[in-house]
Design brief:
The protein has about 550 residues and is mainly α. The protein has 24 helices and six strands. The protein has a six-stranded mixed β-sheet with strand order 3-2-1-4-6-5. It starts with a helix and ends with a strand. The relative contact order is 0.10.
Length: about 550
């Protein structure tokens, strides 16, 4: 391994490990518990995920990782058995989330930097490989989302690795390239369904290699690769066919969460925020230029970029993370453009390095601001400390959107009610819920931590996200009828909480505390109109913030 790529791997790892413990043990990423809880639920012996809107492969891998963690903890005397290990998680899940973030975020993200380097070095040049890897190592969206336990970083590693076999198909290296691609494609789709679009550059490579002969679409090696991909997907996600009805139902239901985003949204929001304009311009120039060159390898990469972006325009969600599969390849094209400019203008290596640093500075600034926010205490924790010190224990409290609220502990009576509700449920996570609530009840008897009677304001009674019950409508009279004297709301955006409720609360209640994540306390609402699922994204959000989270207001009614 050359010193250059070794230094880039160290840099990439350090940028991704900085702030890795953000929000713990509060669990302030909306999607992480969905993966971790399912991984731990497999310990009951039921490996049916009972949920197919995301594939279960990542949670299966985490289950194995947590199994190793259990064996190590037991051998070291940290836990004495399974029951203690469960209580260890329920008492403080921080170590489980840290392990998950490293295994599913930091490590595959860092490995993707190396995979991109190897792709560039083998197929193009060492200079292009190093420059591409530097841009990926410092890419803001890639760094930020490397802090999360989710499907994206393992998927990106597989997608970049798949181009080795795609180029093998292009160069007619034999059946091994087709077999390898089939294995990687099946693994990609089992990791995240949008991995299926890696088939576009594969088909292009196959057609290029066979000079677009009509009979090339009938070749056994082509269909063999697709068959292998299907088999690998079925092996890694066995309940997709063992419970095909539930699997297909969830896939159909996913359509309700996606829709047309237009041709410019992900370009002007997601990609512009990931790269900033100078680098994005260079990347797009590289994509366009690939269609003017007689280079089928560059063209295969460009076809993936265009095909995937086209899908995002037609059916996706508006969130920035949806462009993540494009990031490594756009880094490649930005580096390719810089290399071509260097050749045309006869730049020295020093000049190329300075220009690269100059166009990367806005992105590096975003990385610094994001990691600094991750490393600081979340505004939800700041609010929780104040509540526990200033509001009488046992007080009824009405809480706004649970995800943006401080993590307060319910009373023993409410825990008993939740236990009864969990016992009447059906499904794969029922037993895990019962165990967790049972432990919380034991903990409530043993400890003297402050607890409150919690109620959750909701516009949709059917929304059971985060097990947020009992619920209340956004009506001040309903709050008062239950004798609730404290209401906590999050100022997320205009109209949230519902404007009529907030106006009544402001008029008839007394604001007793406000906790802002912003440098300027007078700023109450987020600039970004999209919900905050993890860390902030827009430049103005990053620059204006001291902490993660949204403005929290506490009213006495």
């Amino acid at each position: 391994m050359s010193p250059g790529i070794l230094l880039l791997l160290i840099l990439g790892f350090l940028l991704r490990i900085w702030g890795i413990g953000f929000g713990l043990p509060g669990l302030y990423h909306a999607d992480e518990p969905n993966v971790v809880n399912r991984a731990l639920a497999y310990a009951t012996g039921d490996f049916n995920p009972h949920y197919f809107k995301i594939p279960p492969l990542v949670s299966y891998v985490l289950f194995i990782v947590y199994g190793i963690y259990y064996l190590v903890a037991r051998s070291l005397g940290i836990v004495g058995g399974v029951k203690e290990f469960e209580n260890f998680f329920f008492s403080d899940p921080s170590s489980f989330y840290l392990i998950g973030r490293v295994i599913m975020g930091v490590l595959p993200a860092t490995a993707t930097i190396y995979a991109l380097y190897r792709m560039g070095e083998r197929a193009f040049s060492k200079d292009l490989a190093l420059l591409s890897s530097f841009l990926l190592a410092t890419n803001f969206l890639h760094v930020r989302d490397s802090h999360y336990i989710y499907l994206d970083m393992p998927l990106l590693l597989i997608l970049v690795s798949a181009f080795g076999s795609i180029f093998g198909v292009l160069e007619k290296r034999g059946r091994k390239s087709y077999v390898t691609f089939g294995i990687l494609m099946g693994t990609a789709v089992a990791t995240k369904y949008n991995g299926v679009f890696i088939i576009v550059p594969f088909l292009a490579a196959h057609l290029f290699a066979n000079r677009f002969k009509p009979t090339s679409l009938l070749q056994p090696c082509l269909w063999g690769a697709i068959l292998i991909a299907g088999v690998v997907f079925g092996v890694l996600n066995p309940y997709s066919w063992l419970r095909f009805g539930a699997f297909s139902k969830d896939l159909v239901a996913m359509r309700s969460f996606t829709g047309p985003q237009g041709s410019l949204h992900h370009l002007t929001y997601s990609l512009a925020g990931s790269f900033d304009l100078p680098l994005l311009f260079l990347a797009l120039a590289g994509v366009v230029r690939s269609f003017t060159m007689q280079d089928s390898k560059r063209l295969c990469i460009a076809l993936f970029v265009l095909a995937y972006y086209g899908v995002l325009c037609v059916r996706s969600q508006p969130y920035d993370r949806y462009v993540l599969p494009l990031i490594p390849f756009l880094c490649f094209f930005a580096a390719d453009t810089l290399i071509q400019i260097r050749k045309r203008w006869a730049w020295s290596v020093k000049t190329l390095a300075l220009v690269t640093l100059a166009v990367s500075l806005p992105m590096l600034a975003r990385v610094y601001l994001s990691n600094r926010i991750f490393a600081r205490e979340d505004v939800r924790d700041v609010a929780r400390h104040w509540i526990e010190e200033n509001i009488p224990e046992g007080s009824p409290i009405a809480l706004d959107t649970p995800f943006f609220m401080p993590r307060l502990k319910p009373t023993l009576a409410q825990l008993a009610t939740k236990l009864h509700e969990a016992q009447s449920e059906k499904g794969g996570v029922r037993d895990a819920k019962i165990k967790k609530i049972g432990h919380l009840i034991e903990q409530a008897w043993r400890t003297s931590s402050r607890r409150f009677e919690l109620y959750f304001l909701r516009t949709n009674p059917e929304d059971e996200f985060l097990f947020a019950r009992p619920y209340l409508p956004y009506e001040l009279e309903s709050v008062k009828q239950l004798g609730i004297h404290y209401v906590i709301v999050a100022r997320i955006k205009e109209g949230s909480p519902p404007s009529e409720f907030y106006e009544a609360l402001s008029r008839r209640g007394t604001l007793i505390a406000r906790f802002s994540p912003y440098k300027n306390p007078s700023q109450q609402e987020a600039v970004d109109r999209l919900p905050l699922t993890g860390g902030p994204f827009l430049w103005r959000e990053l620059w204006s913030r001291e902490r993660n989270g949204q403005t929290i207001e506490i009213y006495h009614v």
